[in-house]
Amino acid sequence: MKYEIYSSKYFGVEPEPVNPKFIRMDKDMQKGYGHDYEGETGKAIFYWNVVFENLKSYFEEYKLESLKDFDKIFNGNQYVSNWVQDYDEALRKVLMHSDKISKQEIGRRKIDLLNFLLSLNLSEETTIHNHKRSLAETYYLMGQPEVGEKHFIQLIEEYPDNAWGYIGYSDQYWLEKDNKNYKKALKILNKAYNRRTVDNSNDIVERLTGLHIAIKEKELEEYLEKEKEDILHEDITIIEAIDHLRRDSDDIPFSYLKFLESNREDVEPLILEEMKAYIKDPDNYAKSNGLLSVYLPFMFGQWERKESSKDIIELVACSEESIDRRIGYTITEEYPVVLYKCFDGDLDYLKGAINRDNVGSFPKLAYLRALSMYYVEDLKDIEGLKVYLEKLLKEQPDLATWISSIVLMHHLDELLVVGEKSVKSKFYDPGVNGQWSEFKFHFYSGFIDETTKYKEPFNAIEAFRSWSSFSDERPIIPDYPTLYQKLLNIREEKLRKSEVKVNTNQGFYQKTLVKGKKIGRNEPCPCGSGKKYKKCCGK
Questions:
Q1: What distance in Å separates the CA atoms of residue 45 and residue 30, rounded to the nearest whole number?
Q2: Residue 166 · residue 192 · CB < 8 Å
Q3: Sign of the alpha-carbon dihedral angle for 145, 151, 152, 153
Q4: pLDDT the model gives residue 508
C-alpha cells in the first residue's frame, strides 16, 4: 500500500488488503484523517465529503441496508461505521465557526449525512437516538433554533427516559453559547431530574450541577459589575443620590439607600418635598421616578412619621390598576405595616377611606390590617374592633373575604363570631380562606403570627432585601462535589417518597380531581395570605 495510513482498525497486526474497488475511497478517507490530525478540519471534510458521496452511490446501487454490510466488502483501514461518526464531528466543528453563508452549506452536508444514517437498518436504539440528537443540534448550529427545538421535542417524546435528549436540548441554551437562556435550560433539565424512570440520572445530575454553578458565576459577575456602578464617589450629594433612585431599574442600589439613611437630618426635608410632588400627581410621579416612588413611603414608615399619616393613606386611595402603577404588590405586604407605623390615631379618617367607592379591594385590605392592629395593640379595644367589623360587613358585604382574613390575622376568640358571619356571607370567596370548617381549622391550628412584623421596628432597606428578586448579598459559587451530592440526595429522596406513595395508593379508589376556576394573576391568593396570587403561590 503506497499511501500513508493515519487511522486504522489494525493494531499490531498486518493489515488485510483493501478491496481494489475501494482503494481510492480508502485513500481519501486517510487523507482526511491526516488533515484532521493536523487541525485542518476544513480540508478533512473536503476529502470526506467525496468519500460520503461515493458511499451513498454504492449503497443505492447495491441496495445495502447497514454499514456493517459495507465494511465486509470494503475491508478498508478504518471501519466506515466509525468513520461516519468522525465525519459528523468534523462537520460540527467547522459548522460552529463558519460564517453565515458557509453554515448553510456545511449544515446541509451534516443533515444529509444524518438522514442517510437514519435511513439504514439500525438495530440499536442508542445509535438512532444519537443520530437524531445530532440532527436537532445541527439546526441550532445553522441558526434555525425553532426547527431544532421541534426535533428535540419529538426526540424526547419518542425516548422520554433517555437522559441525553434532555441534556442535548438544554445545552443549546447555555453550554458554550453566547446568548444564554439559563431559565429555559434549567426548566428542561429539571423535567428529566424530576422524572422517576429516566435512565442515566447521574448524567442529568452532573449537567444540572454544572448549570447551577454557571448561573451562580453569572450572578457573581453581574454583582461585581453592579458593585462598580454603585460605588459612591466621595463628593456625592444627597440630591444626586435621590436622583439615582429615580432610575427605572430591576436592581436596588443599596449603597445609595444606606447613604441617604445615614444623613437623615439633611435628607428628610428633601424627602418631604418629593412626597408632596408624589401626592399631587401620584400616577405620573410613579411613572417617571422609578424606585423612588416606593422608597418614599418606606422611609416614612421607618421614621414612623405620624404627621404624614393622611398622606400615606391618600397615596393608595385609588383603583387596583393605579396601585399596580405606583407600588405594585407592596400594597399587600409592606404597605400595611407602613400605614400602621405612620398612623396618627384618626380612626374616622381611616374608616372614611375604607368607605370610599373609588378605592380598590387591595388598598382596603391594607387599611383594614393597619386599623385592626391599632385597635388591638394601641387601644387594646378588641370589642371595639369586633363592633366595627360587624358594622362594616353589613355596610360593605363585598368585603366579607377580607374581613375573614383580618379575623385569621389576629386569632382572637372574641372575633370568631365575626369570622363566622363573614365566611357564611354570600359575598365570601371560599377559595381564599376555605369553607367554615376549614376556616375554623386555620383559626385554631397551623397558626403563624402575622402581627409580628407590625410590632417590630420597620427598616426600609431590610424590606427591600426581603424581596426575592432583590439582594445586596454577594453570590456564592457552590463547591461542585457538594452540590452534586446534594442534588443526588434530593432526587433519591423524591424517588423514595414517590415509591411509597405509589405503594400506598395501590388497590384504593382514586378520587378524580376536578379542575377548578383559573385564578387571575391579580386576584387574592387562595392560600389566605391576603397577597395577590402572582406574588404568592402563583410565582
A1: 11
A2: yes
A3: positive
A4: 34
Which H, E and C letters describe 376-413, residue by residue?
Answer: HHHCCCHHHHHHHHHHHHHHCHHHHHHHHHHHHHHCCH
Which long-range contacts (C-beta less than 8 Å, at least 24 apart) are formed by 277-284? 278/315, 279/311, 279/314, 279/315, 282/315, 282/318, 282/322, 282/326, 283/322, 283/325, 283/326
In the three-class reduction of DSSP (H, G, I as helix; E, B as strand; rest coil), residue 507 is classed as: coil
Place of cell 426575592: 468
Q: Report the alpha-carbon angle 433-434-436, nearest 5.
A: 110
Q: Whole-angstrom Cα distance, residue 442 to residue 69?
A: 72
- Evaluate the CA torsion angle 522, 528, 529, 534 in order and state its sign: negative
Site of grid cell 461516519: 84
Instruction: Say which range, 117-121, 163-167, 318-322, has the weakest mean pLDDT.
Output: 318-322
Q: CA angle at residue 88 from 8 to 96, to 5 degrees? A: 125
If you average pLDDT over every residue of the chain, what do you get?
87
CA neighbor of 330 nearest in space, from 297, 370, 285:
297
Exposed / middle / buried, residue 451 (Cβ in 10 Å: 0-12, 13-18, 19+): middle
Query: Which distant-in-sequence residues (6+ apart) come within 8 Å of 436 by Cβ?
Result: 420, 423, 424
Positive or negative, the Cα torsion across 217, 218, 220, 225?
positive
Residues 35 and 478: their CA atoms lie apart, in Å, by: 42
Of 43-52, 284-293, 366-375, 380-389, the one with minimum mean pLDDT is 284-293
357 HSE (CA, 13 A, CB side)? 0
Among candidates 214, 222, 163, 207, which has minimal Cα distance to 488? 207
pLDDT value of residue 516:
40
- Report the chain's C-alpha Rg in angstroms: 34
The set of cell numbers assigned to 268 is 428628610
Amino acid at 506: Q
Task: Report helix, strand and coil shares of the chain as percent, to nearest 5.
Answer: 70, 0, 30
* Residue-wise DSSP of 49-114: HHHHHHHHHHHHHHT---HHHHHHHH--SS-HHHHHHHHHHHHHHHHHT--HHHHHHHHHHHHHHH
CA dist 243 and 467 (Å) reads: 22
CB burial string 17-52: b at 16+ within 10 A, e below: ebeeebeebbbbbbbbbbbbeeeebbebbebbbbbb
Q: Which of 228-242, 266-280, 375-389 has the lowest mean pLDDT?
A: 228-242
> How far apart, in whole angstroms, are the C-alpha atoms of residue 365 and residue 257?
29
Task: List Cβ neighbours of 339 (8 Å cut-off, separation of 6 or more).
Answer: 312, 313, 366, 367, 369, 370
